[in-house]
Sequence to fold (1325 residues):
Amino acid sequence: MRVKLLLAALSIVTMASQAYADINVGVSLSATGPAASLGIPEKNTFALMPTTIAGQKINYIILDDASDTTKAVTNTKKLISEDKVDAIIGSTITPNSLAMIDVVAEAETPMIAMAASARIIEPMDAKRRWVFKTPQNDAQMAIAITQHMSKAGVKSVAFIGFSDAYGEGWWNEFSKMAEARKIKIVANERYNRADTSVTGQVLKLISANPDAVLIAGSGTPAALPQKSLKERGYKGAIYQTHGVANNDFLRVGGKDVEGTWLPAGPVLVAGQLPDANPLKKAALEYVKKYEAAHGAGSVSTFGAHAWDAGLLLAHAVPAALKKGKPGTKEFRVALRDALETTKELAGAHGMFNMSPSDHLGFDQRAYVMVQIKDGKWKLQQ
Amino acid sequence: MKRRYLILVGFLVLIALGPLILPEFYVTLLNYIGLYAIVALGLVLLTGVGGLTSFGQAAFVGLGAYSTAYLTTASELPVWMAPFGASPWLALLVGLALTAMVALLLGALTLRLSGHYLPLGTIAWGISIYFLFGNLEFLGGHTGITGIPSLSVLGLEVRYGREFYYLIWAMLLVAVWLTQNLLDSREGRAIRALKGGTLMAEAMGVDTARSKTVIFLIAALYACLSGWLYAHLQRFVNPTPFGLHIGIEYLFMAVLGGAAHVWGALLGAGVITILKQWLQDLLPKIFGSSGNFEVIVFGVMMVLMLQRARDGLWPILAKLIPDSAGDRERSSVPHADPLPKKPLLQASEQLLEAKDVVKEFGGLVASNNMSFSVRSGEVLALIGPNGAGKSTMFNCISGVDPATSGKIFFRGEPVEKLNSREIARLGMSRTFQHVRLLPTMSVLENVAIGAHLRGSRGVLSALLHLERAEEQRLKAEAARQIERVGLKEHMFDQAGSLPLGKQRILEIARALAADPVLLLLDEPAAGLRYLEKQALADLLRRLRAEGMGILLVEHDVDFVMGLADRVVVMEFGEKIAEGLPEQVRQDPAVLEAYLGGVE
Amino acid sequence: MDMQIALLLGQDGITNGAIYALLALALVLVFAVTRVIFIPQGEFVTLGALTLANLQAGKTPGTIWLLLGAGAAIAVIDCTISLRTGTIRRIPRILLWSVAYPCGTALLLFLVNPAELPMLAQVVLSLMLIMPLGPMIYRLAFQPVAEASVLVLLIVSVAVHLTLVGLGLLFFGAEGSRTLAFSDATFKFGSILMSGQTVLVLASSALLIAALFWFFERTLYGKALRATAINRTGARLMGISTVMAGRLSFLLAAMIGALSGILIAPIATIYYDTGFLIGLKGFVGAIVGGLASYPVAAAGALLVGLLEAYSSFWASAFKEVLVFTLIIPVLMWRSLTTHHVEQDE
Fold:
C-alpha cells in the first residue's frame, strides 16, 4: 500500500516536472578542491548566462564535484536521473570529464566538457558522439608554444609541470611537438600545486642550461617555479601555459613574471584584438559581463570556457526545439545533432566549426601568443 | 530474539526490493554506500575491533581498481599476464593476490611499529601508492584509464546501476556475514583481545602478530574487492579516489557509524554519503550558491555528532532494538563433550625451578640471584614489600620480560628464552595484578579466550563457521570453569559490569580454561571482601588438591599464611627468607622488612 | 650534483624543515596535554599567512568573522551553562573573551587602514586575529569530548580540519597569496647566497624554540602544562585544570602555526589548502619523536625537510613517494629502540 502511494507520488512529481518543459542544463564543476581556482570563475559565469533561449526558460543546475572523479560521476547521474537534464556541462578537469563520458553516453545526453585534454573527444567513438568540449586541446596550445620557440631560436628547453593530469597532459603534447620541431628537451620535472619550495627542481632545470623553460601549471601555483628561477639567476626565456591566465597570477608573480610568454585564448587580450577579428565582439561581451559582476580585472579565461559552452547550447537549442520538447529523448538527440553541426560560431575563445569527427572545432584563431609586460597581458601582433 | 531476526529479515527484504521501487539516483547512492561500507567494514575489524588505526585503506581500494582496469583494458599485456585480462573475474583474483602480497609486505614492515608509528606508516604508504598510480605511465598517469568493460555474472551482463546494486549488496552482505562469523569464533576472540593490549593476549597463547596480520589482510582484501567493483561500476579510474583524503574519509565512516560494530560500517557509510548529498541539495537553497558551504557545514555537523555519540551511531540505534546480544546467548549455557586435557601430574612433581635469576633494567638490579621452586599440589607464596621485585620475577617466569641471566626450568625444560605464548602452551597460566579483561565482552567470552590454545581451527573455517563443533566445546569448557569458580550467575553479563573482586575470580577462570598445570596468580586477593577471600582460598585449596601447582604473589599476609604451603620473602630484589609460613613469620629479617626494622 | 647544489638543497631543506619542526613541536605539545592529534595545525599556518596577506592588501580578512562567530557560539554555550549551574559571576569573564575581545578587534580593523600600518603592527594584528581561535576551537570542538578515545579525538580533529579548509576557501578564494618580504638583504656565505628571509626563518624558529623551552622550564604555566602531559589525573589533583591546560596548549599551537605561516609567506605562495601537507610533514616529525619527545620531533621534522629537498632534485615526480618511503626505516628504528613491555605496574 505504502509502496503504491510512494510510486504514485513519484510519478506525479515527474509528470509535474515534465509539464513545465523548461530546458534544464546540469553543470558539474570543481568549485572546491585542488581545481577550485578554475572551477570558481566557471561557476560565476553561469550566473551571467541568458535565462531564456528562443523563448524557453533555461535552468542551470550547478553542482560542485570537489575535483573528485567519484563525485563528478555521482553528480552526473543525479542530474540525469533526478533533474532530467537535457544537457550536461562539465567538468572542470580532464579526469572528471573522462569519467563522465560513460554516464552521459548511456543516458544519451549531450555533454560539453570544460577541460583541456584531447582525450575527452578523441578518438571519436559511439560514446564520445555525445561529448563536446570548449577549451582548446592542449595539443593546439603546445603547437603555439613550440612555433614561437622555434621562431625565437630556442634550441633547448626544460619542462616543469604540475604533478597531476594538467602537467601530464602538457608533457605528453609538448614533448611530441618539441621533438617535431627539433627542440631538445633537457629536463623534465614535476611539482605539487601546494608545494612551498621547488628549489630542487629549479636547480636541476638550471644545471641543464636550457635556452628556455616551460612551466605547465595553472593559476598562482605556476608562479613559484618562475620566482625560484629568477631568484637563482636564470636569464633565459620563460614560457607559461594558458592555465595561468588570470590576474591573481600577475599579482603573486609581480616583477618576476615580466617578459613571460604564453599561449592563450583571445579572450585574455580581447581589447587588444584588431576590430576586424570576428572573435573580438564575442570575447569583449563576456569580459564586460563578468567584470560588471565581479569587478575590473577579475576575468579569467577559465570562466570563458563555461561561457562558450553556454553559447554552444544557446546556438543549438532553437534547432533542437523544432524536433522535440525539452525533457524528451528526441530533444536531446536533436540537441546533440545541432551541436555537431555548429558552424562559424564566434566564442570568447575561438571560432567553433564542429563536425562528426571534431567535437571542438577550433582552428588557429583559437590561440594567440601573449607576453606579460608591465604587469599586463600584451598580445603579440 | 525473534524480534531481532524479524528486523534483520525486514532489512534484507528492503534491500532486495530497493532497486524495484527506488528512483534511479537513490540506487546510485546505495551503490556507493555499499562500496564504501565494504571498505569501512574492514576498518571496523582493523581499527574498531583490533585497535589498529589505518589511514591507508584507500590505497588498497586503488590496488583492486587499478589491477582490473589495467588487465581488462591494456592492449599489449605481457604474455604471462595475458590470460588474466580475459575476464574481470580473473582480474579480481589477480587484484586480490596482489593486494594480499602488498598487505603482507606492508604488514610485516609496519605492523611491528608500536603505538603511533603505525598510523603514520599507513599514511606513508597511502601517499606513496597514490603518487605511484599517478606517475606510472602504463596505469594512465594522473589522467586515468578509460573504457573498463562491464561485468557479467553467470552469463548475465551487469551493466546498469540496478544490476550492479545486487552484486554490490550481495558482496557486502557476504562480507558482513563473514566478519560476524569471524568475530564470533576462537580467532575472533583473539582479535578482540588485541584491544586489551598484547600482554594479556600473548599470555593466553594468542599470537598477536599473526592476529594483527590477519585483520590487516582481511581489511585490505575487502578494500580491494570494493575497488574492483568501483572500477567496473565507474568504468574509469584515476588516482584521486584513492588518495589520503579518501583514506581518512573511510576511517571517518567507520568511527561515525560505530567502529566497534559490524553494522556500524554500513550505518557510517550511509549516513555520511546521504548527509553530503542532502547538504548539496539543501545548502544552495539557504545560501543561494553551491560549493562553498557544504564542507564547512559537514565538518561542523560531524563534530556535533561525535560529541553526542562518541561510540558512533550504531549503539544508539541498537538500543532501540529491545533485546541485546546477551539475551541471545542466555537462552543456552553451552554444553558439549569436554576438551582433551593434559595428562595428570605425578604427585609432587617438580614443576617450576628458578635458578639464580637476575633481571637488570639499565644497571638497576630489580631481581638478584633469585632461586626457588614450585611442585605440583603445592601453593608457593612470593611475598615482600612494595618494589621488592615480585612482579619483575613474575614477568621473568611468564616470559613477558626475559631475565638478564639465570635459568628457569618448567617441568624440566629450560624456558628462560621462551616468550609468554610458548610458555603458556607448556601449561603455565597466569592472572594479572591490574585486571586485564575485555570489559564489553561477556564473562563467557572472556573466559573462552583462556582456552585459545585448546582449539586449533583457523581463520578460514572461522569465516565460514565450519568450526562450530570445536567452538561449542571451547564455550562449554569456559562455562565449566565459570561454574567451577562460582560465577555461574554472571556468565552472560558484560565483564566490565562485575565488581573488581569478581573480575579477579574471572581472571582465574580464564587462566583455568587453558588447562594449566601451574597457575601464576598476581595478587588475586587484592580488593576482595572477607567472604570472597574465603571463597578464593577454598577454590585454590581445591585446585591444589587436584594436583595443580600455584605460585602466588600476594600482599595480604593473613591470606597467604592461611593458604600457602611454603613462603618466599623478597626485599630489594633479593630473597631474604624461605620456608613454612610459621617459620617465615618468626624470621627477624622478614620482620625488619615488614615493620621497618625493630630496634 | 656538485657541492654548490648540495649546499643549496641543504639550505632549502633546513628552511622548510625549520617550519616543519615548529609545527612538530606544536603537535607534540597538543598531543601530550590533550591526546588530540591536531590535524588542523597546518590550517593555522594558512590562516596566519593569508590573514597577513589580506591586511597588507588593505582588505578585511575573513578570519575576523570566524573570530566573531566562534566567540558568539562560546558566549551562548558558556552563558547557558553558567545560568543553569548558577555560576553567574563567571559571565562577565566569558563575555570579555568571547564577545568583547572579538568585537574590539573588529572595531580596530574597521578604524585603521591595515595596509598603511608598519609591518610589525600587521603581524601583531594577524596574531591577534588567529591566536584566540586556538582556545576557541578547543572549547567548541574538543572540550566536550576531552575524555574520549584518541581515535574519536582524531576524527573530531579531521572534522575541524575540513571545516577550516572550507572556511579558508570561503574567506580567501582558491588562488594563493604571498606577503611582502621582511627583508631584502642577502648574505653571502662562501659561494652560497642566502636571502635575508631565509636567515629570518631560521633565526625566528631557533628563537621560538628557545622561548618555548624557557616557557616550559621556567614559568608556572609551562610547568603546569608539563605536569598535565605527564599525568593528567595527578595534575588535576594538584589543582591544575585540564581545561586550562587544554586551552593553553591550543593557544600555543595556534600561535606557533600562525607565526610559521607569517614566516614562510614571503618565500612561498600560500593557498587555502596548503596547510594540510605542511602539517602532515610536521606530523611526521612529531611521530618520529613518538609524540612525546620535543628534540627528537624537531630533528625528525628537519630530516623530512632535507629528504624533501634532495628527493625533489633527484626524482621530482616521485618526491612524496621517496620522502614517505625513506621515513619508514626511521620509524622502524624508532619503534624498535623505544620498544618497551606493557608494564603491569
Observations:
- The domain at 350-595 of chain B is CATH 3.40.50.300 (Rossmann fold).
